[in-house]
Amino acid sequence: MTKTFSSLLAIGCLVSGTALAQDDLRTMALDMFAPIPSTTPSFENNPVTPEKIELGKALFFDPRMSASGVFSCNSCHNLATGGDDNMPTSIGHGWQKGPRNSPTVLNAVFNSAQFWDGRAPDLAAQAKGPVQAGVEMANTPENVLKTLNSMPQYVEWFQSAFPEEANPVTFDNFAKAIEAFEATLITPAPFDAWLNGNDDALTDLQKTGLQVFVDAGCAACHAGINVGGQDYYPFGLIEKPGADILPEGDKGRYAVTATADDEYVFRAGPLRNIAVTAPYFHSGAVWDLRTAVEIMATSQLGADLTSEEIDAIVAFLQSLTGEVPEVVYPILPPETASTPHPSGVVIE
Amino acid sequence: MTKTFSSLLAIGCLVSGTALAQDDLRTMALDMFAPIPSTTPSFENNPVTPEKIELGKALFFDPRMSASGVFSCNSCHNLATGGDDNMPTSIGHGWQKGPRNSPTVLNAVFNSAQFWDGRAPDLAAQAKGPVQAGVEMANTPENVLKTLNSMPQYVEWFQSAFPEEANPVTFDNFAKAIEAFEATLITPAPFDAWLNGNDDALTDLQKTGLQVFVDAGCAACHAGINVGGQDYYPFGLIEKPGADILPEGDKGRYAVTATADDEYVFRAGPLRNIAVTAPYFHSGAVWDLRTAVEIMATSQLGADLTSEEIDAIVAFLQSLTGEVPEVVYPILPPETASTPHPSGVVIE
Predict the structure, then answer these.
(1) Is A229 on the interface with B (CB under 8 A)?
(2) Would the CA dihedral through A296, B64, B86, A74 be positive or negative?
(3) Do the annotations mark residue B341 as ligand-binding?
(4) What is the pLDDT of residue A273?
(5) pLDDT for the residue numbered B298
(6) Which ipTM was obtained for this model?
(7) How close, in Å, is residue A153 to chain B by CA atoms?
(8) Contacts of A95 in chain B (CB under 8 A)
(9) What's the pLDDT score for residue B346?
């Protein structure tokens, strides 16, 4: 393997040497990846309007959507810190620890499905999960609606966001508004500028890293707009990592499909903003990006990459760190006498 | 009392009837209160610069300032919900409950001292408290500095904010930067527009409420720019409320001064944005503003206000709800290999 990659490195260095070689690399890359679009993604069943985005932003940042009043969507998918929370697994209601690492909300709209096991087909379905999960926000749809209906400002915002509906304050629309806001959370990166034709947007080392990434086989699973997030693969295809990284109790997609083939199968992580979303893997057990790349090479590809090759891949991955759109912190509707009080009580 | 206040109501109604009466009311009001200034307040020992404000904003929103990575300043002083957290007392590290209601950070710069017992002379001193409190953020100055120093972007921001210091990353400067950001969190309200000469900024009922507020004696304690927050008074001056509202275990300012006279003495609550910062009192035991006004009238003034008088005061208090300045949500520096990992471990 080392020999092959040494020659790849040589190719990689050549890439930056000639315009033709760079064009070849770009043509190959565009065959596997795609740049982030310049406009907000759309949904067939959920038109994205400015009113819906504003409502969704309010809901995303509102801790009153949790039973305790402590957690909002933004608590675990913090837009200030890469769209995730910098923890192995999140802390939720009653100081419980979640089962899996919180994935970034940035560019999540480009994943083919949501959650590490893909159990939610889209962002709206995803948004209904954590709100109700006992270890996360521990709320109920009924209490969410009671909370929203208690604040006239929220009712008005729902009316503006869903103008054709007689009773727009529903849990489905709650989720659709959040989906609309999250569709705006896309982060164009140097890699996109390079895919779009700017030769100088990547460094030579990053271009070499891209070549190694593709030739080593990483792109077989980590492809598409999100450089991952498109399909499911066994963690440990070639060599199963230790239980510290792949805990035995979490069988991944098996919980969704109940198919033996899906034991320890997880969605290939989307790699956009990966350099700013440590710790890594569904277990959140690995803090260092370089180590994560090494583990992937061994467990998924059986590849014994050189230190230089790993460095180049890490450099390429850093070119996926994008610009987070400017978000004005919302001013939320004030509570009224009928707003349910927060309850930090943990039901055992 | 009722008779007196009925005549006051009559005066109040007159107030709106003639320009002269209104001018008299304004002259009287300007003798007790002051409008929010049009510029950011300054500090003798802490010049407020754009760089310091930006750094302070980042620190204010950064959950990595807490040991667990769960709580930022904004968790309990949420700018989206009136600068507080809508809970009787906050939930902190390890799901512990705090001892007192979280006061709003909005306009806190105008309080003569910070905390319900005034134990911090200024916002910088205040900012050092919750970070270290075991029931709140449970961190140490050492770990805060280790965290900040691990991120080159933060070190640069400290250098820009404190350009004359050789080693600007200190816990004192951490607090000073937060103080500078908090100085920008001032909220001009209809009451200010009226104090500044706009006759139409208050409704007739609000003007009547102001007159009742002053004549009943509320303004004896709730005065100044913040309509409170200036001095300390026994809770239950005339009639002590029940232990549900005034818990016996919390002796207020006595803990600061160890003077018997200071038992159950608290800072008069600043009333700006009071309509959007329920629940009320240091115990957070009362959810309804009208009820809170009734309790104050009885316990502090021995006044038996009519229902109309209470209504008028509540209407006046609503004129203190101001416009929160637009805050762009910060993008925080990414962690590095040397950033301390979050620890949700609770030390018993």
Answers:
(1) no
(2) negative
(3) no
(4) 98
(5) 94
(6) 0.93
(7) 13
(8) 94-95, 344, 346
(9) 84
CB A339 within 8 A of CB A150: yes
- Tokens standing for B243? 């232990």
* Whole-angstrom distance, CA of residue A135 vs CA of residue A125: 18
**Structure token digits, residue A234:** 């066994």
Question: Tell me, what's the pLDDT at A348?
Answer: 63
Query: Using CA atoms, how far apart are residues B8 and B13, in angstroms rounded to an integer?
Result: 9
CB contact under 8 A, B81 and A332: yes
Asked if B60 contacts B130 with a C-beta cutoff of 8 angstroms, the reply is no
pLDDT in tens, A168-179: 999 999 999 999
How near does any CA of chain A get to the CA of B34, in Å? 25
Give the helix ranges, DSSP H, for B46-187. Answer: 50-61, 73-76, 123-132, 141-149, 152-161, 171-183
Task: Note whether A97 contacts B: Cβ–Cβ < 8 A.
Answer: yes
pLDDT digits (tens, 9 = 90+) for B160-187: 999 999 999 999 999 999 999 999 999 9
% of chain B with per-residue pLDDT over 70? 95
- DSSP letter, residue B342: P
Size of interface A-B (CB pairs under 8 A): 95
Residue B63, chain A, CB below 8 Å: the answer is: yes
Cβ-proximal residues to A178 (8 Å cutoff; 6+ apart), any chain: A56, A59, A60, A73, A123, A124, A127
Structure tokens at B244: 């549900």
Q: Does B198 touch chain A (CB under 8 A)?
A: no
Which residue has better confidence, B79 or B14?
B79
What is the distance between the alpha carbons of residues B13 and B209, in angstroms, rounded to a whole number? 10
- CA end-to-end span of chain A: 53
